[in-house]
Amino acid sequence: EAQVTQNPRYLITVTGKKLTVTCSQNMNHEYMSWYRQDPGLGLRQIYYSMNVEVTDKGDVPEGYKVSRKEKRNFPLILESPSPNQTSLYFCASSLAGRTYEQYFGPGTRLTVT
Amino acid sequence: KQEVTQIPAALSVPEGENLVLNCSFTDSAIYNLQWFRQDPGKGLTSLLLIQSSQREQTSGRLNASLDKSSGRSTLYIAASQPGDSATYLCAVRPNLEGSARQLTFGSGTQLTVLP
Fold this sequence. Notes:
The complex is a heterodimer. Chain A is built from no helices and eleven strands. By secondary structure, chain A is an all-beta fold. The termini of chain A are far apart. Chain B is mostly beta strands. In chain B, strands 2, 4, 5, 9, 10 and 11 form a six-stranded mixed beta sheet that branches. The chains are: A mainly beta, B mainly beta.
């Protein structure tokens, strides 16, 4: 089954404790992206990647890092999480020329206390 | 900077009603506009995609229209059903080349269809 998976689905952590949210897709997609969703603000893009070793900042990259060492994986790293990073995070992927056909993961709800 | 607004933020209707969800955007230089559905605990599902040259798209009971010059789109849902209850998101893609063509989302309309 074609899908985008995220782990963990739920995470409660404390300020400053490094964490990684994994994203994996099995569709051989070149394009992958991370979004965060906050009440009243819609989805905002954090980082995206057009292919392996090619990443770029989205609208709200501060406090986040990403890497794209393999085509199927696009982990989101929070080196020193803060309470304002409490949010619902989505990973998405698509073929390079078809970003209008993005497949979204189920979301990761992160709470930073 | 593009801004996308969706009104109302929440809507509750009885089953069977026809309804309209609104989306407005500030920069009319868009490549396309997309409507998504979001269910709790699940990712987004694309419903309809309208290219900038198109006026509307239809899929089953859904019809989306686009008026690029006025910066507006509507999603019409006919004969609503409880299974239509979800959050509906509108997103626009700028008329820029290549990797700059990233989506800007509205904050969504939470729809509840009452049996």
